[in-house]
Amino acid sequence: MNKKNKPPMLSSAFYNNPENRAIIYQVMALAAIFLFTYFVLNNMFINIEKRGINTGFDFLGSEAGFGILQSLIAYDESDTHGKVFIVGLLNTILVSAIGIIFATLIGLLVGIGRLSKNWMVSKLSMVYVETFRNIPILLQILFWYNVVLAALPSPRQSISFFDSIFFNNRGLYIPKPILESGFIAVIIAFVLAIVAVIYLSNWAKKRHDETGEEFPLFGTSLAILIGAPVLVYFLSGTPATLEYAQLKGFNFRGGWTLIPELLALAFALSIYTATYIAEAVRAGIEAVPKGQKEAAHALGLKDYIILKKVVLPQALRVIIPPVINQYLNLVKNSSLATAIGYPELVTIFSGTSLNQVGQAIEIILMTMAVYLTLSILISVLMNYANKKMQIKER
Amino acid sequence: MAIYEKLEARPAPSSTKGIIHWAKENLFNSILSTVLTLVSFYFLYLIVPPLLDWMIFDATWSGTKEEITKDGARWIFIFEKFNQFIYGFYPEELYWRPNLALFIFVVYVIAFKMIDNIKVKAFIILSFPVITYILVAGGFGLEVVETDKWGGLLLTIIVASVGIIASFPIGIIFALGRQSDMPIIRTISIIYIEFIRGVPLITILFMASVILPLFFPEGMDFDKLLRALIGITLFQAAYIAEVIRGGLQAIPKGQYEAADALGLTYWKKMGLVILPQALKISIPNIVGSFISLFKDTTLILIIGLFDVLAMVTLTNSDTNWLGFETEGYVFVTMIYWVICFSMSKYAKSIENRFNTNHR
Asked: Residues of the signal sequence (chain A) (predicted)?
């Protein structure tokens, strides 16, 4: 037989079978990871032993022995590191929630502003976005904290609004609602109002599908949501009062205090993140084809109905995913608090607690786990909302 | 035969041209718009004049510290501390070395644009980091400058460049890994990318600076800067991987099939057909990711490295020059803003160029 006609040997070689090769590569990758992990862990145990570092999570039960500037739950120096963790976590959630609310509001305004027909408004919105997006967030936090808030007047010369809100270099003082037992009725009224609105919107949608008639859902819902609790509030004899902050000696007492660290951080996070949200909003609205608006106009729909029923539903689909990412970034960026000492998770747990206990591995892994969980939670929630928005292809 | 005299064209009515018409169309086209315009003008009136006064008209530009007026910005502080902002503690007599590296960079960029020979281009790309490292760090007969002396803008740029250059190949590998058909490789890539992207950079920097030394045998001592660089590179690689994945997904399936039909091996298919196209599409996002990285380098001040932002506090600790934080922050803000803004304009221009290509 002629040698030339022989099929090439190569293809039958074990190594050249793509499936076998895939297995070989994967086994090699796994082996490399196992070897590396073994090397790393082995060194870690040797080092830990040599340096006499404690291991395990016992430290969570031991006394922390340091004070915390601000906590949402009762905390004092005799509490444990476990409690420090909770306090830090709650403060992270607090500043993130404030940041997300304000970033969304500013972002929406500026994003819509950039598309405004008014030249001034669109240019100012553009200047806002280009300015704050191109300055590192850490620099902004430090600037608000070290320059702007530090330049505010002392408590005695506070800037006051209606004699009930005070702003000075120790923070922002706002009235605190004191709830009495009867307030539960107001809460119940509010919950019932929400249920009523859900029913109402289902009914309105059904009616619209059947008869094509529009029901003024937004206004009615708003009236129910605000009206019902307010009515019950007065009927049950105003079971809540406001406690105002008052200047006593050198500082204010009573009311709610927002410490400067929180203000600077929340301010910087909102302003910075809002620039990205504004761009997402703009891109989303611009992504709706012009023909859609023209078609809606041609059908004789009113402007606000076009916005509500044609533009927004389509724009939101484009807007939501990048906005989710920005919420996640905001939560992660809240960790920069450690540069100004706002007592959130990284500052007090990965900072103060770590310095006292010295168990870096456990503490940093716990901190990372928190952010991973928060990230996953937010993205699951938002993906759910996103899915509901998606076009249902029939 | 009647002779008609040619009339001059009459000017358009004043209501359809000129500044007044423009203002009517763009500033006062409705009641709401008018209100918004007036509010905007008031807003500008509140902000711009005081800012200009502070920054320019009332500012102190020269003279000695004693002659400073308190009204405006005292830029003389920046001039006094300029070298520290740029070089940190780098020995003054050796400033020429980073300067020379910058010069070589500029020459290389120009050469890179003019030369078409791939081999020369590769040489330029590969030789640049080596030359820069030797110039900045010393060795080979040059006086050694320890990394704890590096600081200021010099350090910021070094960290950002090393981050982007080193993370690039790692990012490509993880992007390919995530798209791979092999389940184990794909899982490893997904876990890596999602883990890094789910945690804040600062926890990664803490991990690099506190835990990393525990992972290696004693004697294998890592420099503080090197640890930060490892952290930043690992972080950036995950983001680059996602950017490149976006580019890979945008490549039409037919390209993969055509490469397969030609009988190319996986690496040839990727290296010669898919990746060049994917990278080209990804360039705007890569620049975007580079901008984020450049801004994120400020975080190294938290683990005790003195980048240009950290210099604000440091220059203020000089007892002769206390209380100049505002000027320092404003100066550093301008540096970051100019660099980031130019990069984002560059990214936009590339995007526009590609847009026309696709039409």
From this structure: none
Instruction: Give the rounded percent of residues in chain B with a pLDDT score beyond 70.
Output: 96
Q: Which residues of A touch B238 (CB under 8 A)?
A: none
Assign domain A81-122+266-389 to its CATH superfamily.
MetI-like (1.10.3720.10)
Q: Say which range, A168-182, B276-290, B338-352, has the weakest mean pLDDT.
A: A168-182
Q: Which of B26, B202, B213 sits opposite A118 (nearest CB)?
A: B26
Any A CB within 8 A of B335 CB: no
Q: A143 touching B, CB under 8 A?
A: yes
Q: Which residues of B touch A375 (CB under 8 A)?
A: 197-199
A15 touches chain B (CB under 8 A): no
| Partner A contacted by B86 (CB < 8 A) | no
Task: Write out residues 5-34 of B within 8 Å (CB-CB) of A.
Answer: 26-27, 29, 33
**CB pairs under 8 A, 24+ apart, for A359-365?**
A359/A53, A359/A54, A359/A55, A359/A59, A360/B206, A360/B210, A360/B211, A360/B214, A361/A44, A361/A55, A361/B211, A361/B214, A362/A55, A362/A56, A362/A57, A362/A59, A364/B203, A364/B206, A364/B207, A364/B210, A364/B211
Residue A135: the pLDDT is 95
Q: Are A62 and A80 in contact (CB under 8 A)?
A: yes
For residue B305, the 8-state DSSP code is -
For B309, the closest of A50, A139, A332 (CB atoms) is A139
Contacts with B189 from chain A: Cβ below 8 Å: none
Report which DSSP code applies to B241: H
CB nearest to A136's CB, from B44, B203, B298: B298
Distance of CA B205 to the CA centre of its chain: 19
Q: Which of B200, B206, B215 sits opposite A371 (nearest CB)?
A: B200
- Which of A119, A128, A373, A383 is the best mutation test for B, with the most CBs of B within 10 A? A119
Secondary element (H or E) of residue A50 = helix A18-51
Asked if A335 and B337 come within 8 Å (Cβ–Cβ), the reply is no
Task: Using alpha carbons, select from A148, A168, A152, A151 the residue that is nearest to residue A247.
Answer: A168
CA–CA separation, A84 and B279 (whole Å): 46
Closest CA to A69 of A337, A261, A312, A305: A261
**Residues in chain A within 8 Å Cβ distance of B182:** 22, 25-26
Average pLDDT, chain B: 87
- pLDDT above 70 for B69: no
CB A277 within 8 A of CB A269: no
Q: Does pLDDT of A6 surpass 70? A: no
Domain boundaries, chain A: 27-56, 81-122+266-389
Using a 10 angstrom Cβ sphere, with 0-12 exposed, 13-18 middle and 19 or more buried, the burial of residue A130 is middle
Sign of CA dihedral A63, A68, A71, A77: positive
Q: Determine whether the interchain pair A139/B329 forms a contact, defined as Cβ–Cβ distance below 8 Å.
A: yes
Percent above pLDDT 70 for chain A? 95
Q: Which residues of A touch B337 (CB under 8 A)?
A: 131, 134-135
| DSSP structure string for A149-215 | GGGSPPGGG-EEETTTEEEETTEEEE-EEEE-TTHHHHHHHHHHHHHHHHHHHHHHHHHHHHH----
Q: Are the CB atoms for A313 and A335 separated by under 8 Å?
A: no
End-to-end, the C-alpha distance of chain A in Å comes to 62
Q: How far apart are CA A137 and CA B233, in angstroms?
A: 20
Q: Which residue of B has its CA nearest to A361?
A: B211
Residue A386 to residue B307: CA distance in whole angstroms: 40
